């Protein structure tokens, strides 16, 4: 999008979806949003869904940009908390997660890619954060992202055995098939537990657990 705006900014039709895509861009959201406002600021309307896209993607710099925009419609306080919650889940900051939970932050808001804080924490192997989120009983264990992958998917793929067990014990369904035709079991066989001392035994044990659950469905 950045290249498109730089080369053909005047030709881009500025819809809410375009602004949401800029706000929720995880790799260069700040740069894209700044460019969008510089090139087409008069056409940009900041809606609640735009703010939600930024917050649920952890884009605090984008929220700061939005906060100074003349067409800013909403109070930012709760949205900064949501962004901080997502980033804390991504980085494994248990203390920050606990603090924000005590403040009543919305804890299961999916971003435009349908990734939730539980999803990103499980994917990155942050077991204490996953345990804390599961303890709230308010997160969707089986929420899938755009390609159809639930929190257990990348936890399995990345070899986070204990997180997989936590999710399974909490009732996660390992049988979801993503858009590539893969399941948690298949990706764990392909990628799981690389480089861990007890990798062979761990992945074998997890495969049995996942396989048994799949047979039960």
Structure description:
With 217 residues, the chain is an all-alpha fold. The chain folds into two domains: 74 residues, no CATH class; 125 residues, Ankyrin repeat-containing domain (Serine Threonine Protein Phosphatase 5, Tetratricopeptide repeat). It is 59% helix and 0% strand. It contains 13 helices and no strands.
Give a summary of the structure in a few sentences:
With 217 residues, the protein is mostly helical. It has helices at 2-8, 16-23, 29-40, 48-56, 60-67, 77-91, 94-102, 117-123, 127-135, 151-157, 161-170, 184-191, 199-216.
Helix content class:
55-70%
Major sheet size, sense and barrel closure = none
What is the typical, i.e. mean, pLDDT? 84
Shape descriptor: globular
Q: How many separate helices?
A: 13
- CATH fold descriptor of the largest domain: Serine Threonine Protein Phosphatase 5, Tetratricopeptide repeat
What is the number of strand segments?
0
Q: What is the N-to-C order of secondary-structure elements (H for helix, E for strand)?
A: HHHHHHHHHHHHH
CATH class of the largest domain: Mainly Alpha
Which structural category do the helix and sheet elements fall into? mainly alpha
Annotated CATH homologous superfamily of the largest domain:
Ankyrin repeat-containing domain
How far from one another are the termini?
42 Å
Number of domains: 2
Estimated radius of gyration: 19 Å
Strand content: under 5%
Corresponding CATH architecture of the largest domain: Alpha Horseshoe
User: pLDDT under 50 segments (min length 5)?
Assistant: none
